[in-house]
Amino acid sequence: MYNILICDDDYDIVSALKIYLSSDNYNIFTAYNGKKAIEIIKEHKIHLVLLDIMMPEVDGITAMVEIRKISNVPIILLTAKSEDNDKILGLNLGADDYITKPFNPVEVLARVKSQLRRYMHLGSQTKSQAVIRIGDIELDDDAKTVTVSGEEVSLTPIEFDILRLLMKNPGKVYSTKQIYSEVWDDEPYGAENTVAVHVRHIREKIEINPAEPRYFKVVWGQGYKMERRNNQ
Amino acid sequence: MKNIKYSLSMKIMAYILITISAFIFAVSVSASVYIKVSDIDRNPETAFFESNICKEITHDYAKEVYYGYFKEYMLTYMDWQKSEDYKQYYSKENTNFFFAITDNWGNNVLSSYTDTYGYRNTFVMEQNGYTVTAFVRKDITAEDDYLFPYQAYNFAYEIRQFLIPIASISLIVTILLFIYLMYSAAHKKGSDVLEQSFIDKIPLGPLLLLCAGVMVSAHFVLREVAIALYEEFMFEELIMLLSFGFAFAFISLMILISSIAARIKLKTLFRNTLIYIITKAVLGFIRKILANISILWKLLLAVTALTIIELIIIVFFTARGGVVPVVIWLLLRAGMIVLFSFVAVNMAEIKKGGEEISRGNFQYKIDNKHMMTDFKRHADNLNNISEGMSDAINEKMKSERFKSDLITNVSHDIKTPLTSIINYVDLLDRQNIDDSTSREYIEVLKKQSARLKKLTEDLIEASKATSGVIKANMEKLNLKEIMNQALGEYCAKFTENNIEPVMNDFDEDIFIRADGRLIWRVMDNMMGNICKHSHPGTRAYITVEKKDNRVNICFKNVSKEKLNISAEELMERFVRGDSSRTGEGSGLGLSIAKSLTEIMQGTMQLEIEGDLFKACLIFNKG
Known about the structure:
By secondary structure, chain A is α/β, with parallel strands linked by helices. Helix content of chain A is 40%, strand content 20%.
């Protein structure tokens, strides 16, 4: 039973989120401004915070900075602002993830689950050499399995090879041509466009929102890379 | 303080005081000089009696005695009564003068009051065998012509040791007052600005003439009167007259000098001269004429003048030969070259400015400091045009940004209630509702709320793209990689909509200059359009072509709806408020793609032929 704090000044949004998260067996705390949120975190053992940015009195960013002084609980920001600058600011100031309004409830649930798993289980598992972990994605080269937030995902052998190639070198950009010659072990004669299709499939399987990937990123005009972020 | 300092009464007082002090100075200086010259300080007893003025008075009195009293005495053996009158006239109480007349043998003929009590100065006049010996009494008490000069001499002697201090003090006072007058010139009571008084408004030449005229005429008038008074020994009147003359001359001189000082302060010393005023008027007139005739006439005038001068040279000088006419002709040509170079340089400057403006560089300013007449005006006009354009553009950018901010803010406010709508519709959807009508309604709500979400997002993006808030981070990008990535992303959607994308086989080393993230947004819109609007079962053609320094990426597909609007309308449909569309999406996709392409210095062209829709993106080669 995890304790989740939902903080937003809009009553209806809080209620809706409460309904969604309760159905997944979470214990929900609610707050309608930043001040209350900080008080709840001081009084209770909270495992995850969903925090709105634009709130009266103490806004989300200020509240987050305050929370970070006392706790390293995962914080997911909720906001109507979708500009890149706001996202970067939020992440730099200590947020773990970012969801823009209007959000898809399923996506919120997936992200909550992902953050909780990372927060609660990290370091508790025995690591073997064959296991590569980036964020909450785990690739076991011996068992040829991939799990996301603890749930196994079924990948085709080609998809598995592509993911392994990129996860071995997080941060490095691979062009479609390079991926083709590494994975297929063949000269790429115009066949590399299939790589892009496979990549899309992988992203649909391992990312919560494939259009806005957290880990498996598209570098337009250059190739693909695995994000180094949250890598432990 | 300031108020009193420059008040008129203060100034008048200063004029009076300076006149008095200057007068005292002049008198004391001339007095001390006179004391030295007339030996008053060394022989105070005799100085007066030996002075010319004393001798002249004595001479006059002696003549009076001889031609008056003595003649009458000799001719008529005067009657007793008359003799008594004379005696009375020459009595000790009446005059300081006395005399003795002797004949050739030294016999005393006639004398006045001959007690020999202290006399000095004698005067001897010999006439017709008679000798008139004149005396002046040592103690001058009677009121006659002697008295005033004698008192003046005594007074001068008495105050001789004060003269130098008096002269010094009066000189200092004069100088101080002079400084004050110079300083206060052109200042007016209660005003900080320099102002012209009515005297300062008179041109300098006439003012000088006036002053000089007044002084010269005063000199001549006073001179005659002064001589007459002196001859009559009317000393008091003479002194008054001279004082008046001095004051008059001195005050006019002071007024002149302070007016000149005021002119220097006002910088009108040269400007307020007749020559300057006339020259300026003439030049102004010529300039006005030049300003009102066209450049063609100016040119004709200049050429005509040159021609006439050359004609004169040819007609008058060439016959005689020599070097002079050739030199003059060469000088004229040199002048012409200078003139034409000036014109050419100005033209070049203006041309450059015009080119800059036509290129859109409204910051460029034509430097017209050294230009003249028409060129200067032309350059001014061009500068004004570019300034106006730049203002208009700035204004436009400002209003675009304002619009964008407004849209963004409103959209953010819309998003919060929209979140609840979407969430609760979803929750409703999860209820076990069996009623088919309710389910149908929920589907509509889901679809429309999703559309509203897309619309808000597109609206923000479109407003940001058109208002220049988005800045492109231009890099060299591999086009093949981009197209493969984009097709890979859309693979599933193409299959889903039963559309087969066909891309031509192009070189792997085609690079474009663009922003990676922005070009994906453009591709996303283009591909999304194809998926949404293509007729199922058709092929969509994507062709990449290199053309000189540009790269064309064209998308062709067959529309499933009838395309009965023009390409322009399609692109600006939303902006124009045309609501004749159906289906999903906001209708802003093409407009966003176009704006983003333009931010990356590319262009987008649309073509519609029947049901064939063709969109081309043109980027710079990387």
